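We emphasize that the prediction below concerns an isolated chain of 149 residues; any contacts that depend on oligomerization or on bound cofactors are therefore not represented. The input was used exactly as deposited, without trimming of termini.
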Amino acid sequence: MGIYLLKKRKGVAVIIALLILLVLTLIGISAINTTTLDIMISGNERVGTDAFYASEAGIQVGVNRLPDTKQIPETKLKEDSYYWSGGPADKGSPKDLQNLGSYQLAGFDSSWAFKRFQVNSTGESFRVARETEVQVVFGPFNAGTEYGN
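Result of the prediction step, given as a token string:
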């Protein structure tokens, strides 16, 4: 009687093997989709980082040219990577750097002054833009001088 029961269950092994194969196939497809998504995310992160560093390059150019507040033209760094002064909408017509005027700093009397400037720069890499803004304070210098105007 035991041999008869085993003969009736011959097809069960094939069904179980097919179910295990189906589960393994679904796990493989899921792993491929996850890997593809991770690759896309890391690529987007790289392009965003390139755009940020291009923006930082524009900030450095702007800070180095102060107290001159003329615009920073669109400047190419490498293939499809640029920076300019202003925001993302200012790509075709960069904006001037801003002179925010005199600034009093605690610990200095009124015979000393500081000049404050704002530098905005946008970097773009493969059509991804990042904007950076800094404010710079120069001084101290005699309050009666015209430095930075």
